[in-house]
Amino acid sequence: MIDLRSDTVTKPTPEMLHAMMNAEVGDDVYKEDPTVNELERRVAELFGTDEALFFPTGSMANQAAIKMHTQPGEQLICDKYAHVYNYEGGGVSFNSGVSCKLLDGDRGMITAAQVEEAINPPDFYHSPLTTLVCVENTTNKGGGACYEMSTFHEIKEVCEKHDLGYHLDGARLFNAIVAKNQDPKEYGTLFDTISICFSKGLGIPLGTVLTGKSELMKKAMRVRKVLGGGMRQVGFIAAAGIYALDHHIDRLAEDHKRAIELGNYLSQLSYVKKVEPVETNIVIFKVNDEQAVMNYCDKNDLIISNMGQGKLRLVTHLDYTQELHEQALQLFKNFS
Ligand SMILES: *Cc1c(COP(=O)(O)O)cnc(C)c1O
């Protein structure tokens, strides 16, 4: 079986399990779990941020951040592909009573000019007050695309000028950092809040860290509690996170290499109409008859995602080895 649906399908390695089994734990709702405290300290140190807090999921971390930044009735700005808008169950309106102004970006990426144009005039009381900008790096629905750092700086200027919060959904931020050889501390200076999933490319069973400025992060414990995300001896999981910080970041380059190889390979096959640019570990390609390709993959124990409208998606990850990669290439070649 080759599972290329998502980088969330990975299982802990024996070494990661060993680190988990040997974790020193305590009750994290009392902030007494030394391993969780250490993971949070490590993330804040890495990004040069004031504070960090461990959440069970990326959706909860994003939703908490949006809650911390906004008041009901306000509006946030994001791309039309944004995870916070498309894949968090309508949580923006449910949890925060906030609406989304959607921008038509490029592969999930927006520009400072688009943001500036989308801000409602604050004294025009008919429209919702714009208070937050959410960006995503890498973009999920945008096919793993990475922003240029300069774009983030330009958007930050707009946020500062108009007094808007600036949140980064960094579910796959380490993929961007590795692909573009960036400094995590630059992200720490740019954003008010950043969420980073450990359950994607880093390969831990669950968990996301939200990090940022103390003026906002001081609300994070209460909001997490409200959302039901206060966990107890969760150091067993945080230990996997610390292990991943030490061992699973640099290797993301392997996932990117295999994704780029898959993209190049697919672009030469006659049944593939188009392959979106591959920058990290996500490959989106278009075919004429998606159902035929899906059925073929299914029969051959190759699991991929159908995004609809002829678009199929592959995501490379920790458990997608070189051996499986070679088998997958062969399977794609044999389809006719
Ligand atoms: C996976 C993901 C999240 C978090 O999703 P969960 O399923 O809650 O872990 C958030 N943003 C993006 C862009 C993602 O890809």
From TrEMBL:
Keyword Lyase attributed: yes
Cofactor dependence: pyridoxal 5'-phosphate
Residue stretches making up the Aromatic amino acid beta-eliminating lyase/threonine aldolase domain: 3-288
Pfam families: Beta_elim_lyase (PF01212)
One term of GO molecular function: L-allo-threonine aldolase activity
GO biological process: glycine biosynthetic process; L-threonine catabolic process
Gene3D superfamilies: Aspartate Aminotransferase, domain 1, Type I PLP-dependent aspartate aminotransferase-like (Major domain)
Residues carrying N6-(pyridoxal phosphate)lysine: K200
GO terms under cellular component: cytosol
InterPro entries assigned to the protein according to its UniProt record, in alphabetical order: ArAA_b-elim_lyase/Thr_aldolase, Low_specificity_L-TA-like, PyrdxlP-dep_Trfase, PyrdxlP-dep_Trfase_major, PyrdxlP-dep_Trfase_small
Keyword entries, A-Z: Lyase, Pyridoxal phosphate
UniProt similarity note: Belongs to the threonine aldolase family.
Name of this chain's protein: Threonine aldolase
Native source species: Nonlabens spongiae
